[in-house]
Structures are given as C-alpha cells and as structure tokens.
C-alpha cells in the first residue's frame, strides 16, 4: 500500500479512503501480503485526472460502478479481430481513457449518460480503457455538446435515429434479396451498401431542406 501510494503521489490515508469508498478494486492477497499492480495505479491516476476536471468523488464512484458493469469489447465486437473487422468494416473504433472521455464531453460524463451509451453499444470497456465504436459518431456527438446540446439529448436522438436507420437497412436488404436472390455471405449487400448510403444521405438532405423552408415560411 505504501509503495502504491508513493507511485500515485498520494498519501496512504487517501489511498485507504479511496478503498473504503470502493473507488479502488481490492488487492490480490497472499496470506497477510496485499499485492497491488498497474491496474490499481492506473485507476488512481484516472481518479486524480477526473478530480482535476471537476468531477466529484461521488460522481467518480458512480462512473466506476457503471463502467465496471458495462459491456466489454469482446461482448460488443465478438471474439477476435476477424469478427471485429467484419462487423465494423466502415467504422473506426476509438480507444479512450476515462480522462479522454471527460475531455470530449466536459461536464456531461455522468453515470446515467455512461450507462445509456453502454446500453446503446456506443461504448464498451477494455480493462482501464473505453472503446467508442465509431470515430464519426464520437466526433459528431462531441461537436453537438460543444454547440450546447446536452449529451443526454444527443444519446436520446441517437436511440431514435437507430430505429429509423434499422428500418431503412431492412428495406434495402429486402429489395436486394428479392431481386438479386438470397446471398448468405452478404456479398451483394456489402457491394451495394454505398448506393443505400447515398439514398439515405440524399433523402435526409432534402428532408432538412423541406424543414428549413417550412420554418422560414411559418
């Protein structure tokens, strides 16, 4: 414990306090000896960084509980790199520390928002790191928050958008399979997916045009 506190730059008393608050996982014990490792040191450094960013110990404890009960990378992506690349062929996952996540969404990283993002599958955990499944979604979400949209509202919108995009994907897949035949490998869908994306992008653009004109005419 003394060695860990020294490495983390805190007092033993502070370390004991963190353990009592369950901010730190218990050590591995061999008889009367308690062994701490790099995982514990990383957690202490994360706590220090989040405190510097304005998070409270209660908030950090809530985040830690949500974080540890969340989905891990294996559950989200499947087992192995092959499954990962097959599932997310066009999206680039992003590895983040909890401090990085706090920097992206200043003041908006709460246990509730983290739980929602984990539930939606936007985030997964990998040891002390967080993995966001899509750099594009991460960048857009952060940009909306910077514009003043609460992260909770962004996540709720994402949940609603997913319902519609899932329906659109099913419409496209049904059309392709009906006219090109059943393809168990998904090769036709993979080959024609740029066409589906172009249709969705064009229709969304025209829908926004109509909405903007309607608001101007109102």
Structure description:
With 218 residues, this protein is mostly helical. The protein has a three-stranded antiparallel β-sheet with strand order 3-5-4. A two-stranded antiparallel ribbon has the order 1-2. A hairpin with a 2-residue loop joins strand 1 and strand 2. The protein is elongated and about 70 Å long.
Task: Please outline what is shown here.
The protein is mostly helical and 218 residues long. 67% of the residues lie in helices and 8% in strands.
Highlighted features:
single chain; 218 residues; mainly alpha; three-stranded antiparallel sheet; two-stranded antiparallel sheet; 11 helices; elongated
Rg over alpha carbons: 22 Å
Percent in helix: 55-70%
Number of helices: 11
Q: What global shape is seen?
A: elongated
Number of strands: 5
Q: What low-confidence regions span 5 or more consecutive residues with pLDDT below 50?
A: 79-86
Structural class of the helix and strand makeup?
Answer: mainly alpha
Order of strands, widest sheet:
3-5-4
In percent, how much strand structure appears in the residues? 5-15%
What's the pLDDT, averaged over the residues? 87
> What is the distance, rounded to the nearest whole angstrom, between the alpha carbons of the first and last residues?
67 Å
């Amino acid at each position: 414990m003394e060695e860990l506190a020294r490495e983390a730059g805190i007092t033993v008393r502070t370390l004991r306090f963190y353990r009592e608050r369950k901010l730190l996982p218990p050590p591995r014990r061999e008889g009367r000896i308690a062994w701490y490792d790099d995982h514990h040191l990383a957690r202490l450094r994360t706590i220090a960084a989040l405190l510097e960013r304005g998070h409270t110990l209660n908030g950090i404890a809530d985040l830690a509980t949500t974080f540890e009960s969340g989905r891990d990378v294996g559950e989200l992506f499947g087992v192995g790199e092959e499954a990962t690349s097959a599932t997310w062929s066009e999206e680039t996952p992003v590895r983040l520390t909890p401090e990085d996540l706090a920097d992206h969404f200043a003041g908006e990283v709460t246990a509730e928002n983290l739980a929602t993002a984990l539930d939606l599958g936007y985030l997964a955990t990998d040891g002390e790191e967080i993995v966001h499944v899509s750099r594009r979604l991460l960048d857009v979400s952060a940009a909306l928050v910077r514009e003043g949209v609460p992260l909770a509202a962004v996540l709720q919108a994402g949940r609603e958008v997913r319902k519609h995009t899932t329906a659109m994907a099913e419409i496209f897949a049904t059309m392709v399979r009906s006219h090109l035949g059943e393809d168990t490998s998904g090769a036709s869908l993979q080959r024609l997916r740029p066409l589906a994306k172009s249709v969705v992008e064009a229709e969304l653009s025209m829908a926004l045009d109509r909405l903007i004109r309607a608001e101007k005419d109102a």
